[in-house]
Amino acid sequence: MKKVILFIMIVAQPLSVIHAEESHATKLLKQRSEHLKPVITKVSSSVYCASGYSPANISMIVGPEGLVIVDTGMFADHAKAVLKEFRKTSDLPIKAIILTHGHGDHTGGASVFMSEGEGVPAIYARTPFNTEGNHFDDGGVTINGLRGARQGGFRLPPEKRINNGIAPAVYPPKNRNVFIGDPPVPTETFRDGRKKISVAGLELELVAAPGETTDQLYVWFPKERVVFTGDNFYQSWPNLYAIRGTAYRDVRGWIRSLDMMIKEKPLHAVPGHTRPILGEKQTVEVLTNYRDALQHIFDKTIEGINQGMTPDELVSYVELPEHLQNLDYLREYYGNIEWGVRAIFTGYLGWFDGNPTHLFSLPPAEEAKRMVTLAGGEPALRKAAKQALADDDAQWCAELCDHLLALHPDDASARTLKAEALEMLAEKLVTATGRNYYLTVAQELRKPSSKE
Do 313 and 217 belong together in one domain? Predict the structure, then answer.
């Protein structure tokens, strides 16, 4: 009898309790948090980088006549904290701000730096600026806000977030949106090629470098051979596709941009996120491996496409070569190789995977009815889903739950079962964005349906 009672107690426990032991992925992300702590790195005699104070890095170049700020962080509070640290090094006025692209985590603190110094600093950027944000706005798309909050983990309690892979797990200030207001309006712009500028007694070069966004640029400081890479490089597998939703990110353009940075022969690299890479040997090696990794994934994806593979087949076919697989700066902390492979396929061939069965797929509810019949009724399908979870097959459990929920969206037991499956999947995923998305949707599923 005691054994029976013990068995019932174990079965009744939530899956989060049964699988209390930390997975390898969770341990990796927790170790990653050490890299993401706030720190000011002196990169060269004139360059300082503040990483970990905000999701995106904020950098300062000290010139004879003033300061140049490269990217401004996500929120004003972040920018104020960094400026306080920078002021320990120099009290010169801020002469210019350079924005590597229009993402809000790089532009949100601009007002803090604009209010410092003698007059209003010039703001340098590419044009058209903030292309990704404008793309959503022009199309009237708003769901990316919800999906972005899920990806970022902004709706999760602190105990469910470890970090964001390339950034600390910060939250927006209370009662404020993730990205506040409109991005700053650049005063000095260029579209293509290379723009040489003289500011604060410094000679800098701004180089058009499409990649994570089409408005991306990198900053080259030739005197001290420092490259500010923007988001075309950070110490993680890159976000070739963001699960919050993006238009196709041109991977070939991204590769070309990395190649240009390598040809500068930099001594040091300051990424858009994570800590700088210091020393010529290490910098060139890291950027070269990064470029080669993207090139390999792109080439293998196209190779598979030309063999007639579907996206589901490609993700099993495409992988990094062995010599790149265990490099920490290519680990999938933020982006994910599978998502990139699917994005490349869609970017070139669109939604149709080539299988004519999928030209006119059954609607989810209709397919669910037939799956229920095939399984021998809803109780049998539900039993199979529960068994899948017990067998540590969370993906199959979630897929079976989708059939149950397609028929009955308010089914509380199916919602809870799928939530447990998503939580199990999250525990095993090192990609922080996907992990946050799993956990946020699980949290949503555990709340009563609006139709109940």
Answer: no
